[in-house]
Design a protein that fits this description.
The protein has 491 residues and is α/β, with parallel strands linked by helices. The protein contains 14 helices and 23 strands.
């Protein structure tokens, strides 16, 4: 039955994706949010889904049949208060995904392939979906439905709905809703699972690493005996989380005893080349047009799980050779006067470290003289805004040649005792020999780059949010400063 479904908090990556899925299912979809920004605002506009801004009780007129409440909303939000006062039916994103798509009443359940982990899940999910899509060229039964926490470049979208059995999901460990504090991925009941990594993250909802591990152990405990788990071999935390699995666990990575072992890994011209051994024997060789050891690990996990689900090796090789990454993951946003502007969704010191390492491989000319690698960071995620990883953040940023640090996003919402002090990070970096500056505004960041960035430099903008429009403002300012420059093609 067609319903009017309203999504409060629709511009979150997962919420925008579920809005698209619900629209594809035939429902009338509306939404609201505090503010909308790309890429999800662009996706929603392309789908013709109206977005009311900001939150207001009147956004629920006319009354919808059902409201999906995003996990960013809490008590005190005017839409939440009206929903509770008037007993408007409501649910969460994770719950409606399971009820409407994964195990719908009266219809066969899908085969749920879930990618989970502190890092790499968006890219790995995109790789897995593209592998299945490529395999569908010879066998339509492989064509997947999917939901990804980002826009996969190969598809130009973050979701797809098909009548076939495979449903590929990014499994998020963040909480479900203000009334359901369990992680979203516990609603997905995976038939197959990739576990990329386990670290302390989301310091606003998890007290420590032990709580994070408990969440992942519960996910592992949901995989049936007939299923399979592909688990990274480079983390003792991952090892602990999969130790009591009831299904087969296959390790992947660089360890000599792993079932799926990466060998002969090398990078050239921003591309990756490697061999993959299965039980010690050469299984296949791979080429991928993106760099970074973390991306090779992601691709290896996706390749192994696809093969375990019947996808031919040739289709896996073809898919990875044509994989185009995810928006806001090492995305080249612009090139002006020989200066490259990169956008990367940075939420954790480990992610920042791997991004900067990958950029060194993509742009090897960044040598500290000409062709410098700049890290421009907005501490915006709930983990980066806190001081829990201050030392690790300093060490990660030290991989850059120059660092510009913005103030903590909405720092007034973080208790003083827990808050990151960016001036201490900047002082430590300067003391270690990495020239760094704390900037009071986005305009100061842009002005610094306009006057100091030189041809050959790579400007890595690191944020999990809109960063005050810097992605548009910076290239525009560089063009004004370099009027002789023309738009340069991006790869």
């Amino acid at each position: 039955m067609t319903k009017h479904i309203h999504l409060s908090g629709i511009c979150g990556t997962a919420m925008a994706s579920i809005a698209g899925l619900l629209g594809a299912q035939g429902h009338r979809v509306t939404g609201s949010d505090a503010a909308a920004y790309p890429p999800m605002s662009d996706l929603l506009a392309s789908l013709g889904i109206p977005v009311a801004q900001p939150y207001a009780a009147a956004n629920l007129d006319p009354l919808p049949d059902l409201v999906v409440i995003g996990n960013a909303l809490s008590r005190g939000n005017p839409e939440v208060e009206r929903i509770l006062d008037e007993r408007i039916p409501f649910t969460s994103m994770a719950a409606i995904l399971r009820e409407e798509f994964l195990a719908p009443a009266g219809r066969p359940a899908r085969h749920s392939l879930v990618v989970a982990g502190t890092h790499g899940k968006t890219t790995t999910t995109s790789m897995l979906a593209w592998i299945f899509q490529t395999a569908a060229a010879s066998d339509p039964a492989f064509e997947p439905s999917f939901l990804i926490g980002g826009v996969a470049e190969n598809f130009g979208t973050s979701f797809q709905l098909r009548p076939t059995v495979p449903f590929i999901l990014e499994g998020d460990e963040y909480d479900t809703a203000f009334y359901d504090k369990g992680p979203k991925f516990l609603h997905y009941f995976p038939d197959s699972l990739i576990l990329t990594s386990v670290e302390f993250d989301h310091a606003d909802i998890y007290a420590d690493l032990a709580q994070v591990q408990t969440a992942f152990r519960r996910l592992v405990n949901l995989v049936p005996r007939r299923g399979v788990i592909l688990a990274w071999d480079g983390s003792s935390n991952v090892t602990e989380c999969v130790a009591r699995a009831f299904c087969p666990v296959e390790r992947y990575g660089l360890a000599p005893d792993s079932r799926w072992r990466i060998a002969d890994l090398h990078f050239a011209d921003g591309h990756s080349h490697w061999s993959l051994l299965l039980d010690g024997q050469l299984w296949a060789t791979f080429f991928m047009p993106i760099a970074g050891e973390h991306n090779v690990l992601n691709a290896t996990a996706a390749a192994a799980l696809a093969f375990r689900n019947g996808v031919p090796v040739a289709a896996i090789q073809a898919a990875l050779a044509s994989f185009r990454s995810v928006r806001r993951r090492l995305e080249v946003r612009d090139r002006v006067a020989g200066i490259t502007v990169i956008d990367d969704f940075a939420h954790h010191p480990t992610a920042i470290r791997e991004t900067l390492r990958a950029l060194r491989q993509m742009f090897p000319s960044a040598d500290g003289c000409s062709g410098r690698l700049w890290a421009i960071l907005e501490p915006r995620s709930n983990t980066l805004r806190r001081n829990v990883f201050e030392q690790e953040l300093t060490a990660s940023l030290a991989l850059a040649d120059r660092v510009l640090l913005a103030n903590v996003y909405q720092q007034e919402r973080i208790p003083e005792s827990e808050r990151l002090h960016p001036e201490q990070v900047v002082a430590a970096l300067n003391e270690q020999g990495t020239p760094s500056l704390l900037c009071s505004s986005t305009d100061q960041i842009i002005d610094t780059l306009v006057h100091q960035a030189a041809p050959g430099d790579v400007l890595a903008i690191l944020s999990n949010g809109g960063f005050d429009g810097i992605y548009q403002k910076l290239p525009a300012s560089l063009r004004i400063a370099h009027p002789e420059s023309h738009s340069e093609p991006t790869p």
